TrEMBL record:
NCBIfam families: orc1/cdc6 family replication initiation protein
UniProt protein name: ORC1-type DNA replication protein
Family named by the database record: Belongs to the CDC6/cdc18 family.
All copies of domain AAA+ ATPase, residue ranges: 49-233
Length: 397
């Protein structure tokens, strides 16, 4: 038998269903948001300008999935109504893009395959907008532009200001435009000019994080397609839903966990995926994330964190800055690193770690004339931090 000869696809029926790029044919637990969305876009069915829509919500809560679903449904409806105007949809991810490159993408999506692409360099931004309007007019109908991760743009006003005025300013006569902006940054709206805000945020739909029950429903539906009958135990689904709900309420994380658990079961030759498989990989997934996060910090920052964790382990108590400093100096020497010598530098690193979410800081009032001082506490499992620091240290760099 060859190397791969012993492999048996025992648990998966369609593993792709658990992959990131899978587009679900059914969206669950988002009825209210879908209804709002439908209402905002419905004018497009009758050849009227639709509302512009902005979606907000944390990572993995279904903004992209719901948008794809709603627009696909709209397209299908328009296609089958003889009287309806055409609908054209362009999706752009704004991450690492300039306004010019985004407009260029929109133009190129409209130019027929035989036509010349709009150049990457040369024309001005105004030239690009003018060309875009020309192409939109040539094609006609209603154009939906979906701008995902729109908060990553350095100058969103200059992209968004234009579109709502294109008809009033005579650039568009036949064609219409609907803007859909997606962001997981709620403060983003405050960075926009008030004119852009009033014209573009006609409909704001906010997506909350999922709770464990909602995640279970989504997972059950996926598991039914992904696994062969009876290969996924309900306990596995409950475990994934519980972990993901406790972390960030993200459906993406929940689905990732289920995929990891399935692979874990397969690797062990088990033909039933259970909560044990989820637990086994959840640990390593979150450990891996923590290790990356700690390893990203500077050497002294890591040593300060390790010192505080060791102090807490040995004394069972939080630490003053001075106590962290003492422990840090011995830890640094153990690692053959020249320690920093001022209290200010240690406090600076503690402040940084606090801001990054590694630590908690409480203020302590030390009585009359004693002034204020701080106590520090690691805001993570200290044993894990100590283990992770050890493993980083023994990894050759
Ligand atoms: N209500 C839902 N029903 C079915 N699947 C869902 C639902 N919500 C999310 N998903 C699935 O979870 C994953 C993450 O969802 P999605 O990509 O839409 O999140 P997002 O809000 O766009 O996140 P990000 O801000 O990171 O782009 C996808 O695989 C998606 O298909
Ligand atoms: Mg998305």
């Amino acid at each position: 038998m060859g190397l791969f000869g012993d492999l048996d696809d025992t648990i998966y029926q369609d593993k792709d269903v658990l992959k990131e790029d899978y587009q679900p044919d059914e969206i669950l637990e988002r009825e209210a948001e879908i209804e709002e969305y439908k209402h905002a876009l419905s004018d497009a069915v009758f050849g009227r300008t639709p509302d512009n829509v902005f979606l907000f919500g944390k990572a993995g809560v279904g903004k992209t999935a719901v948008t794809n679903y709603v627009l696909t449904e709209l397209q299908a409806e328009v296609d089958q109504r003889d009287t309806a105007d055409d609908v054209h949809i362009s999706r752009v991810n704004c991450n690492n893009e300039s306004v010019y490159s985004i407009v260029r993408t929109l133009i190129n999506n409209l130019i027929p395959p035989s036509g010349d692409r709009f150049p990457a360099k040369g024309p001005s931004k105004a030239d690009a907008f003018e060309r875009l309007y020309r192409e939109m007019e040539r094609v006609g109908g209603t154009h939906f532009f979906v701008f995902d991760e729109i908060d990553h743009l350095s100058d969103p006003d200059s992209l968004l200001y234009e579109f709502p005025r294109a008809r009033a300013n005579g650039y568009l006569e036949d064609a219409r435009v609907g803007i859909i902006g997606i962001s997981n940054n709620y403060t983003f709206r405050n960075t926009l000019s008030s004119k852009v805000k009033s014209t573009l945020m006609e409909q704001e739909i906010s997506f909350s994080t999922y709770d464990a029950t909602e995640l279970s429903t989504i997972l059950e539906h996926r598991a039914e397609r992904a696994f062969v009958d009876g290969a996924c135990d309900p306990s596995a689904i409950q475990a994934c839903a519980a972990f993901a709900a406790k972390d960030d309420g993200s459906a993406r994380q929940a689905i990732d966990l289920l995929l990891g658990a399935g692979d874990n079961a397969e690797k062990n030759g088990d033909d039933l995926v259970t909560a044990d498989h989820v637990e086994a990989i959840h640990e390593s997934v979150s450990r891996g994330q923590l290790k990356d996060k700690i390893a990203d910090q500077t050497m002294h920052c890591q040593l300060v964190l390790e010192a505080l964790a060791l102090h807490q382990r040995d004394t069972g108590d939080t630490a003053r800055t001075k106590q962290v400093m003492n422990r840090y100096q011995s830890v640094a020497r153990d690692h053959n690193v020249d320690p920093l010598t001022t209290l200010e530098s240690i406090r600076g690193h503690l402040d940084d770690l606090n801001m990054l979410g590694f630590l908690l800081r409480t203020e302590e009032n030390r009585g009359q004339g004693g002034g204020r001082s701080y106590r520090w506490e690691v805001d993570m499992d200290i044993e894990t931090v100590i283990d992770v620091r050890e493993s980083i240290d023994s990894t050759p760099t």
